[in-house]
Fold this protein.
Amino acid sequence: MSFTRIRYDRPADHVARVTLARPEVRNAQDFTMLYEIDEALTTAGKDHDVKVVVLAADGQDFSAGHDLGFDMEEVKGSFTDPVVHQTTGDGQPGIEGWMPMECDAYVGLCQRWRDFPKPLIAQVQGRVIAGGLMLVWPCDLIVASRDASFRDPVVAFGVNGHEYFVHPWEWGHRKAKELLFTGNAMDAEEARAVGMVNHVVDRDDLEDFTLRLAGRIATRPMFGLKLAKMSVNAALDAQGQSDAVRTAFAYHQIGHANAFHRFGQVMDPDGPPMVRKEIREQSAARADHA
Ligand code: ZN
């Protein structure tokens, strides 16, 4: 395997690790990164010696979200990228081209990773923004350092939230509404209090703690782990999670379609600068208090 956006290693017995390796852009996700993660997980899934996979990230921040990497003005909703495995819609104008891309590269990969047949542990530090949550939330367990924060500000873009809409399960329905409406972040301690994060640890202990947890899980038989995971996921689906994600994805596309109609591009052009300014100001305020 030769990767350009991630690293794949085996840090302990029966444990594989996928590390986001674009710290210079705060691990923003382009399509190459997303499909490299998927390829690495497929490899770990097939390897009978691997029982647990850790998803980690280099640098100060886990992930700043999607790196769209193209000019929204030019894309006009149509979409062509050789990395994305679209089956229909490739290069078609408007939402006809946009929706299948998001269906495959965003919500499709997230659902596939949620159902990955081995325990996945996210090891999270720093900021996790929008698409960053789409890497963390499909994982089974989340270990966060005290400085971690979790934010989905894309209502400012004129859509409902990021494409993998499990916010009510992760944050609780009332807090989900507040954080979507305001674009504010949930910090690590509150995320632990609402059940989104399993453990909050010091930054210096993050890697060791996560590997100890992975090692403990790896003492269990693989098939038992797989059945336990499938059973909890079945309970989420019995609550309607997959149906709700599908409905929210349709609403999300209505948001893109409305923006396309009003602005000639798939998001409100005022959104990105508004969000960048708020995050800059909030980060500066936190630094002042530190
Ligand atoms: Zn979208």
